[in-house]
Amino acid sequence: MASLLQNTRELKTFVVDEGHGVKGLSELKIKSLPELFIQPIEKRLDMSKVVPYESIPVIDMSNSDDPKVGEAICDAAEKWGFFQIINHGVPLSIIDDVKDATHRFFMLPPEEKKKYLFKNSPTKNVRLVTSFIPEVDTYLEWKDYLSCFYVSDDEANSYWPSVCRDQVLEYLKNSESLIKRLLEALIKRLDIPKLDDKNKAILMGSMRINLNYYPVCPNPELTVGVGGHSDVSTLTVLLQDETGGLYVRKLDSEDWVHVPPIKGSLTINIGDALQIMSNGLYKSIEHHVVANGNKNRISVPIFVNPRPSDVIGPLPQVINRGEKALYKQVLYSDYVKHFYRKSHNGKDTIDFAKV
Ligand code: OGA
Ligand code: NI
User: Fold this and answer.
1) Which of 218, 287, 294, 355 is the most buried (most CB within 10 A)?
2) pLDDT at 286
């Protein structure tokens, strides 16, 4: 073990290439964080910038047809880019099942988990990763994740890990009507009255679901769970457990606010694709996960995306109001490729689409 911890290459092989992940490293009960994970100070979250007296909006969705609820969703998307929802209609049992399924997957022995590493996985749609892009990240993030791109039930049944597949699919299916209600509300303010087949395809034509595992970390203050980034989605539906640790940057500010876990709630955030399509009305906000010294944390984001083959840009209805386009038309798969070419670096992905 001493040699493993002293040799960065060996350590990287252990965590990244052998299915151990940072979870496996955490379970060795190491006393101090290996250098490979020590982030430069500017990549860590400066806790002195966290303001305790503010929080993102919490919206009760029980009457989502009520125009007031729609307005609250649009206001939150404009001013915060992030909000929590309660009474959202996704059954608690389905949420609990997908959380259990996430723990089950990460409890698998490394030999089992190894099968889902990109180099071994028979499909590019399922992959187990440590850090964000270990091939590119100079310093690794303290996180393991299984990423599943949804193609069809048949495909999922063939390739997704059987210990979690059914619960993940069930969660995806049960979130669909919520996602539609959120988008219906958001497009109204863009002068689009209805979610029809055409705009549905570009707003929610593909889905990716990740199972995130952030194990207990020695020296959590020296590293990150996820470095500051914005999502490339249209919107993200995030399920977090009761641990906490997600921080959101306040719009046009250096201040950060914590997203406190609320039992049964879901967190919604606007992604770059919707910031682009709304011509900057809705904000894709930088967020950060800190590592935790006492508890393992899981989270499950659903990234609701355009299809890879879609060309996205400010929507015609928005431009028809006389606004000047702030973003170019870009092929969504090019945008996503750009995101996956570089380590997390705040909000810089969107520069790719700026006019
Ligand atoms: C992400 C992300 C937040 C969390 O996976 O993009 O921001 O709380 N996750 O895990
Ligand atoms: Ni994110």
Assistant:
1) 287
2) 97
